[in-house]
Amino acid sequence: MDDTSPSAAPPADPSATARAAIEQALREAELTWESPADGNYVVTLPGTRKLSTTCSLIVGRHSLSVNAFVVRRPDENHAEIHRWLLERNTRLYGVAYAVDRLGDVYLVGRLPLAAVTPEEVDRLLGSVLENADGVFNTLLEMGFATAIRKEHAWRTSRGESTRNLEAFAHLLRDK
Fold it and tell me: Using the 8-state DSSP alphabet, how is residue 68 labeled?
């Protein structure tokens, strides 16, 4: 059969197909999101350790890019943290840890437009959430232990609540 015949359907626009798949996935997952420009999505992923993770999805000419902030530049143990992130990269799906010029940690990824389906977008967002929220306390412990101890001491001295520092109680005992 000749694909140039008048009855052949025109090829679908991969960008439009990807945008429709993303919007379907976001609606089905009941996520909070906005689209500040055509093909650009800002999604809020609710977390348990990190209250929320903001994830950017950008439909490009040939690929979907994913970018999510994980944690600001650690105060300490940079080499240990970078090694830990690189080792974790070998086990991640669809995204990888990256460090920007300031030292802040992100998750980044790229997916060909032909692979963008609602199921794949859901899988990708799940990977972002697990690898931002799921490791958040570990990264805080590794990179901000001194600051956590100082914050606890300051709050204790003023009689203020330390409830949101309870996850780090073992750091306070291990002085």
Answer: E
CA distance 113 to 142: 37
Enumerate long-range contacts of 48-56, CB under 8 Å, 24 or more apart: 48/133, 49/133, 49/134, 49/136, 49/137, 49/167, 50/132, 50/133, 50/136, 53/128, 53/129, 53/132, 53/133, 55/125, 55/128
Q: In the chain, how many domains are there?
A: 1
Structure tokens at 51: 């209250």
Query: pLDDT per residue over 36-76, tens digit each?
Result: 999 999 999 999 999 999 999 999 999 999 999 999 999 99
What's this model's pTM, rounded to 2 decimal places? Answer: 0.86
Structure token pair of residue 117 = 């389906």
Question: Would you mind telling me the total number of residues written for the chain in this entry?
Answer: 175
Q: At 33, which CATH number?
A: 3.30.1460.10
Sign of CA dihedral 73, 107, 55, 168: negative
- Any domain includes 60: yes
Nearest to 172 by CA among 150, 155, 143: 150
